[in-house]
Amino acid sequence: MKSGRFYVVSAPSGTGKTTVLKRLMKELPDVTFSVSYTTRPSRQDETEGVDYHFISRDEFQAMNQKGVFAEWTEVHGNYYATSRVSLERYLSQGGEIILDIDTRGVEQIQQKYPHGVYIFILPPRHADLRDRLTRRGSESQEMIDLRLQNASKEIEKMDRYDYVVVNKKIDETVEQIRSIIIAERCKRDRVLRSLGGGGER
Amino acid sequence: MKSGRFYVVSAPSGTGKTTVLKRLMKELPDVTFSVSYTTRPSRQDETEGVDYHFISRDEFQAMNQKGVFAEWTEVHGNYYATSRVSLERYLSQGGEIILDIDTRGVEQIQQKYPHGVYIFILPPRHADLRDRLTRRGSESQEMIDLRLQNASKEIEKMDRYDYVVVNKKIDETVEQIRSIIIAERCKRDRVLRSLGGGGER
């Protein structure tokens, strides 16, 4: 059986993830971008079936009860979900798929589908962990503890990811994610399998 | 202490490895290319200290006895070796180094230095493992066995490598190796360490 590969891209809101993904879509015409389901209202510049599949809360509940989703999360009162059927169809066709999934959805995906590649985009304003860990001065012990705690929470989230890309310049971020995908295609077992000489080890 | 990263590139002779490495050198000006020592005579287009450090067999033996080399191999009666001192100096400076090493030298490097990234360039004429494994017809059982044996020897060699790049078109090969280096820089632990928020796990 053919076996495709999926890449999960996650990012805190305000990271510029949507812009990055749209650029990647143009540069990687042979990669499929999974279209999520959402109960949030569509914005004016969004197209049904391209940006999202827009559904009602009732539709979401009914679909979820039928086990249609590979993962789902609630963000600010709206549901977001990935279709299990279309993910599995693409994988069985041997294709490559990019999934745009919240950090909380990642755990569900990792339990059900091994061998995914997980990429975390970090906004540059978050990329000051060193500052927050080492800056000292007139601050209270509580402030220092809070900073340490917040930084370690962010790192913990990233534990589920293989790659971390700091989105300083959009061109660089797009090139880095593109490079990750090209490099993953060159992983030994993947190449040997495609040559018919070896299996996944 | 700073800790650099090294990439090992190996290839059977006639793969076009030298051309690939020269192109990479231009495209990756911030990466150092390790200059090997060799006892083979220099060719007309080769420059001492750029292509190789050319030394005599006596010099090689004396240096080897002093433990100067990180790895060495004999190929067609000539010795090739990598300087331990310069490798360790580059690594301690936090730099990135590309080493051009024979498959037999790789074992020595892996025993001494963990965390290297190993890339095997496969000539397209070798990339027909599937053919050799599945082609059947009027051939004798011995021929089939020989083919299977040769193919599995080649795969065994690749066991020590993280990535396999099939050198079909030089532009693609250069882009793939460049992508591998960019992707390795985005590995989670490496990024978190550079942000000061986490260690190698």
Describe this structure in words.
- 2 copies of one chain form a homodimer.
- By secondary structure, chain A is α/β, with parallel strands linked by helices.
- Chain A has a single domain (5-194), classed as P-loop containing nucleotide triphosphate hydrolases (Rossmann fold).
- Helix content of chain A is 43%, strand content 20%.
- Chain A contains 8 helices and 9 strands.
- Chain A has helices at residues 17-27, 57-65, 84-92, 103-112, 129-134, 141-158, 170-185, 188-194, and strands at residues 5-10, 32-33, 37-38, 53-54, 69-75, 78-83, 96-100, 117-122, 163-166.
- In chain A, strands 2-7-1-8-9 form a 5-stranded parallel sheet, sandwiched between helices. In chain A, strands 4-3-6-5 form a 4-stranded mixed sheet.
- The model of chain A has no long low-confidence stretch (mean pLDDT 87).
- At the A-B interface, β8, α5, α6, β9 and α7 of A face β8, α5, α6, β9 and α7 of B.
In short:
The structure is a homodimer of 201-residue chains. Chain A is an alpha/beta fold. The first copy, chain A, is built from 8 helices and 9 strands.
